[in-house]
Write a structure and sequence with these properties.
The complex is a heterodimer of chains A (110) and B (114). With 110 residues, chain A is mainly beta. Chain A is built from no helices and eleven strands. In chain A, strand 4 and strand 5 form a beta hairpin. Chain B is an all-beta fold. Chain B is built from no helices and eleven strands. In chain B, strands 2, 4, 5, 6, 9, 10 and 11 form a seven-stranded mixed beta sheet that branches. In chain B, strands 1-3-8-7 form a four-stranded antiparallel beta sheet, with no helix packed on it. In chain B, a hairpin with a 2-residue loop joins strand 5 and strand 6. The relative contact order of chain B is 0.33. The model of chain B has no long low-confidence stretch (mean pLDDT 91). Classes of the chains: A mainly beta (110), B mainly beta (114).
């Protein structure tokens, strides 16, 4: 929605790193998330970061949070064809409702 | 062993009809949600139930009525279907209301209204 913004498309070469960016508006956000949606499937929670953290790493995934700028990024190292999907950034506040961005479609080319 | 399941996966119906979508989770979670994803992939929460009690009710037409017979099930009934209701509807669950960060999504129900 309008509270969470992402670029719509990203094309990356196989083996390179992908960086997906997201900005949010609610400074009271408690958790920020990255979800992955493959074609015809539901959303899969990839990772999330608590708002008092700057960075979280999980295998090939690195999440960076700049709370001052309200900017969140997801870096995927060594991008593979199986990483082609739509990636959603989301935030939740005190009432634990998730507000999603419009999704970034990542296309991995050989 | 599916965690969050929805039926049907596809639903094609005519304007004016009434239809239901069912959701079940076998994770033992207390909280369940319904989301709508439109053709532009924009996802928006519609409802949330915690232990059969409605806790989130976003601005949704009255034609949409959720029902939770028990904490493992959350169904969505839609009356007088309109063309604009065409979307993918996702069910999700989380362990508790306070752990809404751990939401697990179902595979979605693609509703097409003709």
């Amino acid at each position: 929605g309008e509270d969470v913004e992402q670029s719509l498309f990203l094309s990356v070469r196989e083996g390179d790193s992908s960086v997906i960016n997201c900005t949010y508006t609610d400074s009271s956000s408690t958790y920020l998330y990255w979800y992955k949606q493959e074609p015809g499937a539901g959303l899969q929670l990839l990772t999330y970061i608590f708002s008092n953290m700057d960075m979280k790493q999980d295998q090939r995934l690195t999440v960076l949070l700049n709370k001052k700028d309200k900017h969140l990024s997801l870096r995927i190292a060594d991008t593979q064809t199986g990483d082609s999907a739509i990636y959603f950034c989301a935030e939740s506040t005190y009432d634990y409702k998730l507000s999603f961005g419009a999704g970034t479609t990542v296309t991995v080319r050989a | 062993d599916t965690a969050v399941s929805q039926t049907p996966k596809y639903l094609v119906t005519q304007m004016g009809n009434d239809k239901s979508i069912k959701c079940e989770q076998n994770l033992g979670h207390d909280t369940m949600y319904w989301y709508k994803q439109d053709s532009k992939k924009f996802l928006k929460i519609m409802f949330s139930y915690n232990n059969k009690e409605l806790i989130i009710n976003e601005t949704v037409p009255n034609r949409f009525s959720p029902k939770s017979p028990d904490k493992a099930h959350l169904n969505l009934h839609i009356n007088s279907l309109e063309l604009g209701d065409s979307a993918v509807y996702f069910c999700a669950s989380s362990p508790t209301r306070d752990r809404g960060n751990e939401q697990y999504f179902g595979p979605g129900t693609r509703l097409t209204v003709t």
